[in-house]
Amino acid sequence: MIRYRSALAVACGVALAVPAAAYAQDDVQPSPSPTTTASPKADPYPFLGLSPRQAMAGEDILVSVGCPVGELGEVKSMVFDHIGKFEVTNPDPVIHGAVAQLSDKARPGFYAITATCKTTTMTANLQIVAKPASSNKPPKPTLGPGPAPEKPGPAVKPASGRQVSKIPVGAPQTGGGGTTH
Asked: Where is this region: Disordered (predicted)?
C-alpha cells in the first residue's frame, strides 16, 4: 500500500511539473523596451505670486505673474503706491516680475492684489503688518493736569508706650477650617 501511495505522489508531481516545464520552454519573444513618451505638461498658467506675503506700509514687494508673453493685462491694488514695469524674469514657463511700492498710509490688514492674464483674473492676498514700536525712546511726558497727588492724612500716634493705638479684644479669629458648618 505504501508503494502505491508513493507512486501516486510521484505521478501527481510529474503531472504538475510537465505543463510548467512545457510553458517554460515555449518560445517567448522579448518584450519591446519601454518607450519614453513625453506626457503633456500641466499648464502652469496663469498664476500670481507675491514676495513677501507680509509687509509693512512703505516697503517694496515683488509681484510675479505667470502668463504667456503678450497676454499680461493690468496688475493693481489699492495698497500700491506705484508698480514698476513688468519684465520677463523666467523664460519657461514665462514669468513676469515687477517691484511694487506699498503706500505709506496703508493700515494693517489684508489687501487684494489682482492681475489679468488674457481673460482670466487672479487674486492674491497681501497682509500689511503694523510697524514695531520703537523701544529705545522713553515715553513722552504728558503736559497738563494729571491726577492730583494724594495728601497724607493726619498722623495717628499710638498711645504712649503701646505698639498699636487700639488693642484688640476677644479671642483671635483664625478661620474655621474645612470642617466647620
From this structure: 130-181
CATH number, domain with residue 73: 2.60.40.10
Tally of structural domains, the chain: 1
Give the model's confidence band at 32: pLDDT under 50 very low, under 70 low, under 90 confident, else very high.
Answer: low
Q: What is the mean pLDDT of the chain?
A: 73
Structure letter (DSSP) for residue 170: S
What's the full length of the chain, in residues?
181
Q: Is residue 77 part of a domain?
A: yes
Residues 180, 111: Cα–Cα separation, whole Å: 64
Task: State yes or no: pLDDT of 37 exceeds 60.
Answer: no
Domain that holds residue 106: 47-128
Whether omega before 93 lies within 30 degrees of 0, making that bond cis, reads yes
Residues 6+ apart with CB under 8 A from 68: 45, 94, 117, 118
Grid cell at residue 83: 508698480
Determine the average pLDDT of the residues in 4-32: 45
Q: What angle do CA 73, 79, 55 make, to 5 degrees?
A: 110
Q: What is the CA radius of gyration of the chain?
A: 44
Residues 143-178 pLDDT 10s: 555 555 555 555 655 555 666 677 777 777 676 666
